Amino acid sequence: MVKKLDLYTDPISMEPLFPDDSSGKLEALAIELVEKAAKLSGTLNPITTVAIADFLRPMNSYYSNLIEGHDTHPLDIDRALKNDFSKDKAKRYLQKEAHAHINLHKKISDEYKEGKIAPIPSSSKYLKEIHKKFYDFLPKDFRFVKTKEGKIKEVIPGEFRDVEVEVGKHIAPHYKKLDAFIERFENIYNPTNGNNKSKTKRIISIAASHHRLAWIHPFLDGNGRVVRLFSDASFMYENTHASVLWSISRGLARTNKEYKERLANADSTRYGHTDGRGNLSNRFLIEFCEYFLKVAIDQIDFMYSVIDTTNMLKRIEGFADLMVLRGKMKPEAKFILLDLFLKGKISKAEAMRITNTSDKTIKLIAESLADMDLLSSGKESITMMYYVKYPLSFSPMIFPGLYPSDKEVDIMNNS
Fold first, then answer.
1. Considering all CA atoms of the chain, what is the largest pairwise distance in Å, rounded to the nearest integer?
2. pLDDT tens digits, residue range 167-186?
């Protein structure tokens, strides 16, 4: 049972909120992240970028759920997106959870698209909105959780917890003081704050705030997902998410043990007078931020290597040749797939020209590719257009390494 004397009641107890790093390594990592994210952003045609971002969203959900200990197979996530839910209760639960995460992630990314008003990620209002929207996508029976004392409590979507909680060895702040902690959190990490004019500082703050929000643990349940969605939103706000072409969750999940160790270490109180001036350890906050920024850079590098134009064209060509060999695709389809990757969309007339085929033949080829989820079609005015599209079923061949190898084998066997 949590004792009142053990509870944090003053927001000053979560200082330092920004790491005091005299070495300059965090600043160097932040600059590297911004530069590499900009490079990744300019890699693809904008239409192709959107198509790949949509294709990658289930991957982000897979890894975010995996961090929670929920190993939802990518094939089951794909079925959930088609409203094909398992009759098995446990598997259906995981599918609905993934489905909710994907829908919310799309809503968040849509909010940050160019031309729309960007919400302040650190605001109390926005954090509550993320939490509420996540649970709004879930059936009501998902809201009931068992406390450490064995009692059943209902999670109120979009509302801070009204009980005390322990997370591992960490005792979170007193529930009656959460508004004060979040107000301090919002003020310090608000990117429009006059003290946050430096983009480099704001990038480092994304790492620091990731830990501090987890430390506050404002909600009864769903904190892990809210924290990672908050970090995604923060990267989007800073225009460093490369149109959602990379995922922090993939990197954190692939180093899950270290991620949780770094989080726990940064919960530690200060180690003597050489460890900063706040209640919490400055040294361990620096180490967490360094880990977090390196993970982000690693994921940007990984996605750049995956979607690099030269690499993509080679894989698309190899994939098409294999499909032709298996009798699943006409040889001319390869030229459509290559052109769609480069341009994002092509007209039916253009497709006929590059394949040197008739109207009837191109229609059959397009229908075949649509059946394989490799393109979609629609009219722009009176012109029939074909649009780039990528399905999970062929991801191991076109986008290798996105998922663990055993999952990719299963995907291949079901393609």
1. 80
2. 888 889 999 999 999 999 99
Domain range 23-307, CATH class? mainly alpha
Contacts with 314 (C-beta within 8 Å, 6 or more apart), sequence order: none
pLDDT tens sequence across 288-299: 999 999 999 999
> What sign results for the dihedral spanned by CA atoms 61, 63, 68, 71?
positive
Residue 188 has pLDDT above 60, yes or no: yes
Cα dihedral across residues 142, 148, 152, 154: positive or negative: negative
Domain ranges of the chain: 23-307, 309-413
As a residue count, the chain comes to: 415
Residue 28 confidence class, pLDDT cut points 50, 70, 90: very high
Q: How far apart are CA 333 and CA 326, in angstroms?
A: 14
Alpha-carbon distances of 348 from 59, 125, 264, 323, rounded to whole Å: 31, 47, 56, 22
Distance from chain centroid for Cα 86: 25
Tokens (6 digits) for 138? 């879930």
Q: pLDDT by residue (tens digit) across 368-410?
A: 999 999 999 999 999 999 999 999 999 999 999 999 999 999 9
What pLDDT, in 10s, does the model give residues 304-341?
999 999 999 999 999 999 999 999 999 999 999 999 99
- Measure the CA–CA gap between 100 and 68, rounded to whole angstroms: 15
The count of other CB atoms within 10 Å of the CB of residue 60 is: 24
3-class SS shares of the chain: helix, strand, coil, % to 5? 60, 5, 30
CA 120, chain centre distance (Å): 18
- pLDDT at position 2: 41
CA distance 389 to 372: 10
Q: H helices of 272-404, where?
A: 282-307, 309-325, 333-343, 348-355, 359-371, 395-398
pTM of the model: 0.94
The stretch 61-88 carries a mean pLDDT of 95
- Measured CA to CA, the distance from residue 415 to residue 411 in angstroms comes to 6
Q: Do domains 23-307 and 309-413 have the same CATH topology?
A: no
Spatial contact of 386 and 351, defined as CB atoms under 8 Å apart: yes
Cα four-point dihedral sign 248, 254, 257, 258: negative
Q: Which helix (H) or strand (E) holds 386?
A: strand 383-388
Please count the CA atoms within 13 angstroms of the CA of 51 that sit on its side-chain side. 23
Domain 309-413: give its CATH architecture: Orthogonal Bundle (1.10)
CA distance 50 to 31: 25
